[in-house]
Design a protein that fits this description.
- The structure is a single chain.
- This protein is 34% helix and 37% strand.
- The chain is of the alpha+beta class.
- The two termini are 17 Å apart.
């Protein structure tokens, strides 16, 4: 099971550490203690990332923020869903306020260990999305 410290969770969701702590206190995100530090399960973080992305889609996107993203950007994020068959896999990620979908071979997804809750990097160039594990 993948877990993330509060600061790592905040980075993946593009919010402050304090925001994640408030979500934990409010019961919006479950946490537990490991090695004396609060951590959240990757699957729980992925579920929250999906909720946040759905909420963002309901509101008009901030056009000025989208203008700062380069076509050759590498975006750190969390895998929220992997749909795989014998040949191809569809990998969905939330990278800050962005939802990224990549198509790759099922073998590549398996070799990278991609599953909900795994931290990954989406490299975007034109219409191609390359997913790497840091």
């Amino acid at each position: 099971m993948h877990t993330y410290r509060i600061a790592e969770a905040a980075e993946l969701l593009a919010v402050s550490d304090d925001t994640v702590r408030r979500w934990v206190e409010a019961g919006r995100l479950a946490s537990h203690t490991a090695d004396g530090r609060a951590v959240v399960a990757g699957a729980d973080l992925a579920a929250l990332a999906e909720q946040l992305a759905e909420q963002a889609e309901q509101h008009e996107r901030d056009r000025t923020r989208a203008g700062h993203v380069s076509a050759r950007n590498r975006m750190s994020g969390i895998v929220t869903r992997v749909k795989s068959d014998e040949v191809m896999a569809q990998v969905e990620m939330i990278c800050g306020p962005y939802r990224v979908v990549s198509l790759m071979s099922s073998d590549a997804a398996a070799e990278l260990g991609l599953e909900p809750g795994v931290r990954a990097i989406a490299s975007v160039k034109s219409t191609n999305v390359v997913v790497e594990v840091p």
